[in-house]
Amino acid sequence: MGTACSLSLSAAGSPGPPPASYGPRASPRSCRDPSAQERKETKHVLEELKGILTAQAGLPPAPITADATLADAGIDSMAVTVLSMQLEDRMGLFLTEDELSCAPTVNALADLIASRAAGNP
Length: 121
Hints:
By secondary structure, this protein is mainly alpha-helical. It has helices at residues 36-55, 77-91, 97-101, 106-117.
């Protein structure tokens, strides 16, 4: 992707909290076993995500699996831009290309989208 993930700085100039769902120590939510409802929501978003990427960004469906990295799934900067626009159009979600590109896997990307759709920062 070539896009570096940036940390936010607090008012004191120290790094802010890490983004949600990006690793085992990212947030209390990621340190516990997700509820059945959270897994269901992420699965639904994963299906929607795959649909957007194949129908709107023209990617082949086979490499877009939950555990695939964005690069392995073929999700390049153009696909991320299309995804960002489609999320805003379809769901009213505003996620920047940088935010979307920071997800390490397709499942983490789906989790990020599900989290934002649920109203979590």
